[in-house]
Structures are given as C-alpha cells and as structure tokens.
Amino acid sequence: MTSPEHTPEHDALTPRQAGERAAAMLAEIRNAVVGKPEPLQLVMLGVLAGGHVLIEDLPGLGKTLLARSFATTLGLDFRRIQFTPDLLPSDVTGAPFYDQHSGEMVFRPGPVFTHLLLADEINRTPPKTQAALLEAMAEAQVSIDGSTRPLPAPFVVIATANPIEYEGTYTLPEAQLDRFLLRVRMGYLSPSQETGMLRSRIDRAAPEAVLRALGDPAQVVAMRAAVEQVEVEDDLLDYIVALVGATREHPQIEVGSSPRGGLALVQLARARAVLEGRDYVTPEDVKWVAIPALAHRVTLSPELWVRQINADDVIREIVQSVPAPRTVPLESRGVVAS
User: Fold this and answer.
1) CA distances (Å), origin 133, targets 93, 95, 151, 240
2) Which helix (H) or strand (E) holds 291?
3) What does pTM read for this prediction?
4) Residue 115 and residue 156 in contact, taking contact as beta carbons nearer than 8 Å
5) Distance CA 150, CA 115 (A)
6) What is the C-alpha separation between 189 and 326, in angstroms, rounded?
7) Staple partner for 116: which of 66, 71, 167, 264, CB 3.0–4.6 Å?
8) How far apart are CA 32 and CA 206, in angstroms?
9) How far apart are CA 176 and CA 166, in angstroms?
10) Are 219 and 21 in contact (CB under 8 A)?
C-alpha cells in the first residue's frame, strides 16, 4: 500500500502545475473573501515564496477571515493569537510546566506550533512579546531553556496590524518588520462589491461560506519547491539590486531597504511567475511586487509624515524612475529576447 507521502498528489510539481493549483485555491478562497483579488493574490505569493505576511489596515476589513480561509483551503493547521498589552512571550512560544504525575518538567507548546499562525493585531502588544515571534519567523524553530524545537513545515505567520495612528498600538521594530516578506493592505470595498458581499451573506443563510480543503502541508511544500525552479536572468537581478539601491540613495528615505528586500523581490517575483503559469521571471513580475516587498522596509524622512507622503508613494516613484530591462530568457517558450 502506498504511503501518503508518495501518492501522486505529493510528487514534485512543475511551476505550471503549482500555478494551476494555487489558482484553484485562490478561486475557492474568493467564495469567502469578497472583492479582494489583489490582496488575496499577494498573500498567496507570500505563501508560495516561503515567507510571512503583514496585513496592515483598519479593523473590520476581513483580515482575520482572509487568514482563516487560507488555512482551510490549503489544508493547514491553524492557530490564532490575539495580541493584547498583557500578553507574555510564553503565551506565544509555550513554556515548561511541572507535571505532578511524572514529577518532571514538561514543555507545553504554545500556539506558534502550527502551520499557519494568525498573529492578530500584533502591534497592540509590547515589543518584548512581539520579539517572541522573531526566531520562529526567521528560523522556523523555538529555543526555550536551552532546547531548540522545530516548528511544523510549512510554517507561515500572517500578522495583522492596525495603522500606527490607531489608539493603543506599539510601533513594530524595524528588525521585525524586515522579517515579513511583504506587507499587504486590504482597503475598503467599492459600493458594488460591498452590496455583493451583503447579498452573498443573505443568499448563503450562514455567517461565513464553507470552504473546501484543496491541499495539505506536503502539497504546499511541493508548490514552494516549484517556485525554486523559476529562472531569473542576470539583468533582472541587476534591476532588483538597482531598485533596492535606489531606496538607500533616495533623498526622501532616511533608512533604505536591507539586503532582505532584494531577496524578497526575487522570491515574490518567482512566485508571481508561477501563479501566471511561467517558469521565468519578467520585469513586470518585479514591478508588481515591489511596493509590497519594499515599502515596509524603508524609513521615511520625518518631514514626509507631516506632508502625508507614505512609503508606498516613494517606492512607486522609484519603480517608475529606475530603468527596467527589456530582455526575457531566450528559451522562454517561444518568446524571443529583444
């Protein structure tokens, strides 16, 4: 009898196969999350690229529903932490406790030991507790009392954050912001989309849509492996380096992107190529992910806050000003390089 690990659905995937499965999952998620095609696609890119996602926006815009819908459709274990001012680091990672029956100290895992962790309103808790996620996000492991415990694979953090002007928030430190592969904004629905959302709620006669599980942890790992097969030409790498370098030289940016910004651009662009059914990256892939990948990694000059210019605007200007290459891989499925 064939074990689950070796069934065809867990075999290696080509980028096209991975893209088809990701597209089917997105279509299923859209049954629950209405009118948010771009945020949904960006979160899927984060999952495919093997990173963590920060969703920053006002309460009530569907951030929690989005995270739970991804966990259900991808077939991943799901845990949620509501970050509050009195939350302790051990409430996130777990802690040892004394077992009276055995007379020994036993480790009780925290909610971080899951496949998809929703860190809800992460900037409502003090920096010490925010930092408890750092090792888990960077190394997929937790170290407590001299012991290192690996987290399940895949491990994805989807964190939600209220805008920093919102009452009762703590600013996320730059080191933690840099751990997020991308930042996503939800935004309000248009009037027609909001009407459609209300109509869907009435028609299904239930608070939320029931989603199907179209994947499992092994399949998500296989889809990530397919992203690693996507080609990136040298001229595109030079373009990515130029974009990141421009953030360090821009007069309106006080602190530019770290090298992680370039890595994020590469992986997110490769993931977008997969979602588009390609095994090679184009300049448009890089441009499409530039703002989500870089805007949260830069610190603007203080005078821009007064003028209400945000990082998204500055990164958008950089993308428009840095020349993009016009070449694509020579062997790219019938596409000839210019």
Assistant:
1) 8, 14, 12, 28
2) helix 283-294
3) 0.87
4) yes
5) 12
6) 35
7) 71
8) 11
9) 19
10) yes
Contacts of 86 (CB under 8 A, 6+ apart): none
Instruction: Read off the pLDDT of residues 157-169 as tens digits, 9 standing for 90 and up.
Output: 999 887 765 566 7
Q: How far is CA 296 from CA 213, 310, 324, in A?
A: 32, 10, 22
pLDDT at site 297: 92
Q: How many CB atoms lie within 10 A of CB 203?
A: 8
Write out the two tokens for 318.
């950089």
Cα(174)–Cα(148) distance, integer angstroms: 25
Reading the block at residue 326, the tokens are 């016009």
- Cβ distance 74 to 47 under 8 Å? yes
Token pair recorded at residue 112: 């971080």
Count the alpha carbons within 13 Å of 28 in the hemisphere toward its beta carbon: 21
User: Cα torsion at 43, 46, 47, 49 (round to 10°)?
Assistant: 150
9-37 pLDDT per residue, tens = 457 899 999 999 999 999 999 988 877 88
